[in-house]
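During the reporting period, our protein records have gained a structure token line. A sample record is set out beneath this paragraph:
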Amino acid sequence: MYFLRGVFVLLCALLSASRAEDDVKNGPCDIFSQDVNNLTLNCSRRNIDRIPSWPEEINKVADRDGHVLITFFNNSITNITELDRVPGNKIAISFKSNRIREIEDDAFKNIHRLVYLDLSNNRLSGDVLRSEIFQGPYNEGVYSQIALETLSLGYNEIHSLDKYLFQYTPNLTRLYLNNNPIELLDHVTLLAISSATKLEVLDLAKTDIDNIPLDAFRGLVNLKQIDLSGNQFVTVPESLSLVGSTLQYLTFNNNPIVELNDDSFIGLTSLVELEVGENDNLEEVKRSTFMPLKSLRVLHLCHNKNLKYISHNAFRGVKDKWTLKEVYLDDNNLSELSTDLLPWDKLEVLGMTGNRWLCNCDLANIVTKQDAGSKFKPGEIPYCAAPMRLTGAYVTNITVSFCPQFDTTFATKKGFSIKDLKPKHILWTILGVATVVGIGMICGLLVNLAKAFYRKNLRSQPIRYININDDLA
């Protein structure tokens, strides 16, 4: 179901984009119907400032299986009023790129099958966003819920969220808060996020946060994907370990982090894909950094312009049960890699372009003997930057012929016995001991003679004192 819902939204978006060129400003909305189960109402780029009534054709959609996309992309709407009923089982509405500052209570109560809502790139503040705008019809003294699954609030003016915001959207699985001036995840915002217990995707990119409280994700037992890019983190938040058993995708680009170490990804045992890129301050990846990542299959460690060192023990602890299939190290400041960094022959895809590779014996070993050269994608083979005679050559063209070859075979060690001794060995041993003893005795005699000479001839005589009074008397 998750996959089908994603496909539905994507297809609707593609259809809308394909019709955008034919839109006419200030003209009526266009309606496209593939069949009774798929309909698109395109009101994009009409320069409208209020929501019009739906055309009659929209009622032709089958209620049970119908999919409807309504898009008001790039208009001048400032207020979302109560929308008319829309038939169909899955409804998607986009108000992206308008001037919305206000949303009325009960705005979506007539569309209780609304599964996708895009309010991004508007002028919404946290005060405008309240639970009442998402409440369904009023029945028997209570407001019912709506089916909302995806809510995009990116590129607005949100600093904080009301703690009851998602009271009537229990099926919310994807929440996008990116590009808002949040700066601090306060208590009420965390209460709002943690109340969406079915949340699977959370986007906090470019929100200027530098910390996530330890218990921030408590209760999000279904969280699978999180984006923390473009923030002020100097370390990977420890709070991620609370969702380590479910989190599968982590994006951690463009943060002022200096190093990755054995504490960076602790507890993230279910992570499948990790992206750490465009971190200009990142300089090194230390030992055991990736040891907690027992399920990792794809690693993007790219576009870190100052990254010049990866410890040969960075994957320590995971080599025995190797799961990684794709490793991308493109566009860093790397020049060398250790031959035992990882089991190169077990990879399916390897990216290494955009670095200043020193084509030495280690790199030749990795590329040829360990078969890393066969993992490069076509057209993405890295070049040598040094030594000068290999500058510009493909790393796959270097050989190990210029590397020193060492004989790794050794004679079998033989045990020692008394029978192996010969007379000359015994004679030389006795002579050596006698020589050492003789030299010692001579040295001792010389020391004693020196002491005696010192006492007899060189030692100072004691000073004698005379009583003057006795002499005068």
